[in-house]
Structures are given as structure tokens and as C-alpha cells.
Amino acid sequence: MNDPSCFDPDCRRCLRLAAFLDQVKAAGFSGVQNFPTVGRVVGGALVEQEIHSNFNQKDSLTLALHEPDFTTASRVAQAINRAFFSQLAQTQDAASIRVSVPENYLGNTVQFVTLIESLGVTPDMVSKVVVNERTGTVIMGENVRIATIAIAHGNLSIQINESQNVSQPLPFSRGGETVVTPESDIVVQEGKNPIFLVESGVSIGEVVKALNALGVSPRDLIAIFQALKAAGALQAELEII
Q1: In this structure, what are the phi and psi dihedrals at residue 199, rounded to the nearest 5 degrees?
Q2: What pTM does this model have?
Q3: Cα-Cα-Cα-Cα dihedral sign, residues 145, 147, 152, 155
Q4: DSSP label at 15?
Q5: 3-class SS at 131?
Q6: How confident is the model over 86-134, as pLDDT tens digits?
Q7: Which of 82, 98, 237, 240 could be bridged to 128 by S-S, CB 3.0 to 4.6 A?
Q8: By the 8 A CB rule, do 152 and 184 touch?
Q9: Pairing of β 128-132 and β 237-240
Q10: CB-based burial label for 175 (10 Å; 0-12, 13-18, 19+)
Q11: What is the DSSP letter of 177?
Q12: Strand bridging mode 149-151 / 145-146
């Protein structure tokens, strides 16, 4: 029992703690709970401290990627080297590129960084299929590929119509009763969609074309992609949101 605010009159530890606190107060001491130096600034605060930085005198820079990727880092280094006609940039890992500042930009590193920022680099995209089961939305990247596989999609439709008929006894008959007899009509329809063979390494355009030929809806696409992933034929990451 370490919390003096929680007192149980039937607990011996609480009674001993209460007696100890009474002795402490009688001796001129006082007990304080929690941390008295902790507070909360309503609306927040801004703490500023000037940090000395000699940025223009740097002879090398390290560029850190927001999303680490080996392909993207290599493309950034190649773009810098092509722009300045020199091997200034070297990739250290998937997240950082070390860039040496040219001699003609020493003392003017800000201008050198400005030129680097203006370079165009296409980042590497992960092959991914994102589906939303709630709205039936399907988003596929251009790098999505599937292995050789046969796809068949058919719908089973069952329609039940029930009507109420009245059965009456013949005229002048004895002991007959008028009753209501239900009559059910069941119609079963099954889709006649053929099986489509999709070759290995096809593009996303060909995949969509084949699926459209099957007449599938966006919600049907979700079930098909889940089946492709389970079969190991989908060469992409399947993310369900």
C-alpha cells in the first residue's frame, strides 16, 4: 500500500501508514504527493535557442530519404552526378546519399542545394493492390504482375417467388373448409462465363482487360485478387483497408 490517499480502515498496512504520517506531521514535516514541479502550459509554448551553424562552409552533405528505398537512392545519386558531370553523389544505404560539394560552390552551399532540389527523380513504387471492402474500391499500381493462371468467375443466382392461393370446397359439399395454400416458384440461374487464361508477366492493363471480359464488378475484383494472393499468383502486396 504505497498510496496514502487510498485508506482502508480494515487494512493493517493502511493503519500503520496513517500513524506514520501523523508522526511526520507532528515533527514539522509535510508529505507531498505526485510532482509539484510538473505543469501544463495552456495553448502550448515556443522555446527558441540559437544554434550556431556554419552551413555554407560544409564540404559534404548527406541527403536523407523520407521513405528509404535502394532504387530511389540510386536514382537520386545518378541524377546528381549527371547534372554536375561528376561523381559527387554516392549511396551509403537505402536512406542516405552522401554528396560532395564542388569547389566552385564552396562557401555557397545553399545555391548548390537549391540546384539539387530542382532535379527531377522518379521514386520507386512498390507493387501493391489496395482494396476497400466497404466501398468496393480497387486501386492497382502499374507494376502489378501476375503469374500464369486461369481465371473463371460465375454467379449463382437463386430467385424464390411465393404466392398465396385460396382453396375452396366444391359447391354443396359438406365438411369442406376454405384454406390458404402457399405456392413457391424457385428459379436457379448460373453464370456461363468462360475460363480466361492470363499469361505470366502481363501488365496491369491486360489484367484489367481480362477481368472486364469476365464482367466482374469492383466487389468481385476484391474476391478475385484475394484468391490470386492465396494461390501465390499475385506478384504484388495486397492491402485491405
Answers
A1: -75, 160
A2: 0.49
A3: negative
A4: H
A5: strand
A6: 999 999 999 999 999 998 888 888 899 999 999 999 888 778 888 887 7
A7: 237
A8: no
A9: parallel
A10: exposed
A11: -
A12: unpaired
Angle among Cα 118, 119, 121 to the nearest 5 degrees reads 135
CA distance 127 to 95: 20
Segments in 101-217 forming alpha helices (H)? 109-117, 204-213
pLDDT, tens digit (0-9, with 9 covering 90-100), for 126-184: 788 888 877 777 887 777 777 777 766 666 454 556 567 777 777 766 766 777 776 65
Q: Give me the helix-helix angle, 70-84 and 109-117, nearest 10°.
A: 120
Pairwise CA distance, residues 91 & 153, whole Å: 47
Burial class (CB in 10 A: 0-12, 13-18, 19+), 12: exposed
Please return the burial class of 221, using the count of CB atoms within 10 Å of its CB with bins 0-12, 13-18 and 19+.
buried
**C-beta of residue 196 within 8 angstroms of C-beta of residue 228:** no
In order of their start, the domains of the chain are: 1-29 (no CATH), 57-117 (3.30.1370), 128-155+191-240 (no CATH)
Q: C-alpha grid cell for residue 196?
A: 480466361
